[in-house]
Amino acid sequence: MGDQIQFIVEKLNQEPFRKNYNLISFDSLESLQLLQLLSDVLGEIDPKHAVDIREELPEQTAKRMLNLLGILKYKPPGTVSDLSAFRQGLVTGSKTVIHPVLHWLLQRTSELRTRAYLARFLVKLEVPAEFLQDDTVADFNKQYEELMEAFKNLHKEHEQLKISGLSTAEIRRDISAMEEEKDQLAKRVERLKKRVETVQNHQRMLEIARQLRLEKEREESLAQQKQEQKSQLFHAEQRLQRAQVQLKEMQHVVADSKPESLMKKLEEEINFNSYLVNEKIPREMESKKTSVYFLQKVVAEPAMTQADLTALESEIEEVNAQMNQLIEKRIITYEPADSKFSMYRQQASIISRKKAAKAEELQAAKEEMSSLERQVEQRNSQAHELGGSEVLTEDEFKQYVSKLRSKNTFYKKKRQEIAEITAECGILQRTEELLRQRHEAAQQQLQAIEEKKGISGYSYTQEELERVSAVKSEMDEVKGQTLDNMSEMVKKLNAMVAEKKASLAPVIKELRQLRQNCQELTQECDEKKIQYDSCAAGLETNRSALEQEVKGLLEECAQEESNYHYINCMKRSLEIQLQRAKEEMKAYVSPDPQERRRTLREQYTRIILEQENLGKKLREKQKVVRESHGPNMKQMKMWQDFEKLMECKRECFLKQQNQAAIGQIIQEGGKDRLVL
């Protein structure tokens, strides 16, 4: 414990606290000062907790500290029973509680600071399930979870980058290596320039090469634009397909739905909700209240023994037997009119049970349907994110299968053609190889002839010029074809867009009318919902008032019941004391001497006489001891003096023996010297 306090004092005297404590001043801190010190340390870990505890209530301070310690994963020592003592000690500022907490916090301040920072963004807010039924709340919750995951990933990347940071030595080595590569490239460029300068018309050839590079770059950019336009066209087709599917669904809904059917659905929903509000929910609340009442009654009861349990079981059996007897009597003595009513009551109870069961099934089916709709929306969103399309219906899937079969046959045909072309390509490659060999031989002969004539390199230069001109003409043709294809594609797209607009115009008109109808129905539904909400709010206020009243009555009942039990216990103890007093009086008045001896008065009288006799004996013994105390002390002093005298004589005798032995040794040593 002393090492712990010393460590705490050392840490508090350092930055950023600088408290200038010593062991005595720290140990003499009061409970309020200790709590303020703990709040300062927590404020250093999380700046939100840097507050003055005098400005808040003790319960708020304890709750705030307990919440942060729970986030920091502090585990107080001891069992569950010790946790209540820990909370109480934290409220009162006990040293035995606060010193270990300070020691644990100051040991790992940097780690806990990081954990508190992460807790601000990673402690998930628990949203009740009934709120998640709303689509807007569910979307916000999903977005919140996605942002939390993104924050986790970014924090991990940040930590990895901090750990795996490059040193200056590595950066310098990379720079030096890049400079060496730059020098090598410069030297290579110089060598290539020297080699090119010997070739005739090298400037013109360089210009042609530059134009060729520019044309290739332009070709790549045109190909990229073509690919982008293809992807845009694909996405536009997908959007068109989705719009068509939504339009079909809306048309199907509009074709099947009429105002009467919509009103019927609304009436069914209102009836179901009114049944829930008026019958099912009050019944469930009543059952919950009764169960809570019985549980509170059981809690208020004192601890029961095995005998009490057996007594209660026997009482329950007796009550059950009485109930069975009453039921038998009623069955024997029933009347025909009552039998008819009982039959109707039985049917009504069966129907009510079936109705409750169906309502529960309907509620479960609605919840399952809403969960399945959320799952479908999640799968659709995931498919959109991955670049996929909507989930196909049965007809669309059949069309897709037929298209796939036609594509499969087309693929097999093309694969056979590719095999034939591959075989022909092998033959052509062999022919090309033979022609290349002949060409190389002819080139060697031509070079030998050019060397003899003194015009070496002429054929190579001419071939290069022809090849460059051919490539340029091919590029011009491809460029013209590409521009023509793009213009045709743009025209086709414009025509398709105009055609789609013309075909969708009547559908859009119908859709506008349907939207107007939908808005009217939505407005009416909102009004009904407002009425329902106001009714539900009134019922809720009445329910809360009744709950408060019932709660007060239950507390009053529990208090009266505890008073009743206490008065019964006191009454029982007083009855026992009264019974004992009556028995004592009866025995004392009785003429029988044996019974008189059994009375408490006689017993205490005997004990008092025995104690008085014992006191007399002890006083006599004390008198004898006082009389013999002086001579005995004198005799003891004489024996102590005699013991000291004998001890002194013994020491003198031992010294005399030691001196005699030393003298004898000296004499023997002198004789030995004389002999020598």
Detailed description of the structure:
This protein is an all-alpha fold and 676 residues long. It has 17 helices and no strands. It starts with a helix and ends with a helix. Its main location: cytoplasm. Keywords: Acetylation, Cell projection, Cilium, Cilium biogenesis/degradation, Coiled coil, Cytoplasm, Cytoskeleton, Differentiation, Phosphoprotein, Spermatogenesis.
Describe the structure concisely for a colleague.
The protein is mostly helical and 676 residues long. It has 17 helices and no strands.
Write the layout of secondary structure elements.
Layout: H1 2-13, H2 23-27, H3 31-45, H4 58-71, H5 80-92, H6 95-107, H7 109-122, H8 135-163, H9 168-197, H10 202-256, H11 259-300, H12 306-332, H13 336-385, H14 394-453, H15 458-589, H16 593-598, H17 600-675
Helix pairs in contact: 1-6, 3-6, 4-5, 10-15, 11-15
